[in-house]
Amino acid sequence: MEPVSYPLYPEAVILSVLGGITVILGIPPFTWHLLQRNVAATSLVLWVILLNLTNFINPILWPRDNVPEWWKGQVLCDIEVRLFVGSTVALPGALACIMRKLARVMDTKNIVMAPSRAQRIREAVLEILWCFGFPILLMLIYYIVQPIRYFLWGISGCNAAFDNSWPSVVLVMMWSPIVSLVGSYYSGLLTFRLYRYRTEFTHIVRCHKTTKSRFLRLFSMSFIMILIILPVQFYILFKNVQLVSAPYSWGNVHGPNWNEIITLPSFGVVVFDRWIRIGDGFLVFFAFGTGADAGSLYRNWLIKLNMGKVFPSLYQSHDSERSRKGSGWSLSNKAKRVFSQKGSHGSISSPTTTRSASL
User: Fold this and answer.
1) pLDDT digits over 337-352, tens only?
2) What is the Cα 197 distance to its own chain's centre?
3) Fewest beta carbons less than 10 Å away: which of 144, 229, 341, 348?
4) What residues contact 17, with CB distance under 8 A and at least 6 apart?
5) Residue 77, pLDDT score
6) pLDDT at 54
7) DSSP characters for 228-256?
8) What's the pTM value of the predicted model, to 2 decimals?
9) 40: closest CA among 298, 332, 284, 233?
10) Average pLDDT over residues 118-135
11) Which CATH class is domain 10-290?
12) How is the beta sheet containing 261-264 ordered, strand by strand?
């Protein structure tokens, strides 16, 4: 009897290659925002990198449907499924924080030049709770409704399993749509303020030490991702609610089959959310990796790699940037001069609080 031949699916190659590309593209934005201590942006890029890292690894490990020969993914899949559960609120949570910050930039009744240390700490703590605390809590709660160890699918790899009872919905599944709605609220508020203060937009973003290009890229990325995440999460929630068919029992959920790993062939089909993660990776690079700050970071890295000997223009650009920074020119000072001109922008109120929304 001839041995069965299992073909290498093209989808496995494509998914792995695109996953690797998005991981590489995400490293510079992650580095820059980490150095700038931008918690929400750092969290968003980090979660997208981790999810696409699984897109890179899993198709390499399980590219064919030779199920009997598969490695069962112990430890790796235990980590991945919890990352997937946490990411369901981490991504919309980070987007909500970014949208909230952008909406505060356009809040012309509360413009300030510099936040106090206490305010910066409160903002950082709030964003850490949204972007990391809540996801970690959900990872822990997931154990309550985890009926088996995990599913293992061809190409896509590790997948979380949920008990078909109401606690799965209440404790885990419903929170991603709720957090996405919060982000949608701030998205709508920001869109309204952008339209209302469209004539003063350039001066407002300068006052907050950012640029029009960076602001619009952040807004575009967050808006598009929310448009994708919100309907997808509500669709998934709707489908899972339909599957609720049994009362919850701790003994049944954590019974003798709890350590079971269920393997399923892919037949060349990739779970649809894997492609969404790839799209998220490219959107993040568009928003964070194509601006002037990212260009400066790339240039500095190339200089450290001695690429300036091959491309002398790198040194010229680096020197011109340093001279511009040292010339004493300041966006905040310029903004102060603009706003101090009488009657120039009467629709913008004077600062009434010490809030800040620096990006």
Assistant:
1) 433 444 444 333 333 3
2) 28
3) 341
4) none
5) 96
6) 97
7) HHHHHHHHHHHHHHHH--S---HHHHTST
8) 0.80
9) 284
10) 91
11) mainly alpha
12) 157-159, 150-153, 261-264
Give the β-pairing of 150-153 and 261-264. parallel
Task: Write the DSSP symbol of residue 8.
Answer: P
Report pLDDT digits (tens) over 280-305. 999 888 887 776 666 676 677 667 66
C-alpha–C-alpha distance, residues 89 and 138, integer Å: 8
User: Tokens standing for 40?
Assistant: 């929400």
DSSP state of 131: I
Distance CA 335, CA 337 (A): 5
Beta bridge partners of 261: 150
**Nearest in space to 197 (alpha carbons), one of 101, 102, 94:** 102
Please give the Cα distance from 333 to 114 (Å, whole number): 12
- The per-residue pLDDT for 310 is 58
- Mean pLDDT score across all residues of the chain: 81
- For 159, list phi and psi in degrees, rounded to 5: -140, 140
Contact 358, 331 (CB under 8 A): no
Q: For tokens 């996801």, what's the residue?
A: 135
Q: Summarize pLDDT for 37-66 with one digit per residue, the tens.
A: 889 999 999 999 999 999 999 999 999 999
Query: How far lies 304's CA from each of 104, 237, 309, in Å?
Result: 38, 49, 11
Residues 282, 288: Cα–Cα separation, whole Å: 10
The domain limits of the chain are 10-290, 292-341
Which tokens in the block code for residue 33? Answer: 């925002």
- Residue 115: name the closest of 129, 101, 94, 97 by CA: 101
Residues 280 and 18: their CA atoms lie apart, in Å, by 12
What would the two tokens of residue 261 be? 């790993």
Beta carbons of 42 and 30 less than 8 angstroms apart? yes
**Separation CA 190–CA 221 (nearest Å):** 13
Structure tokens belonging to residue 150: 């995990």
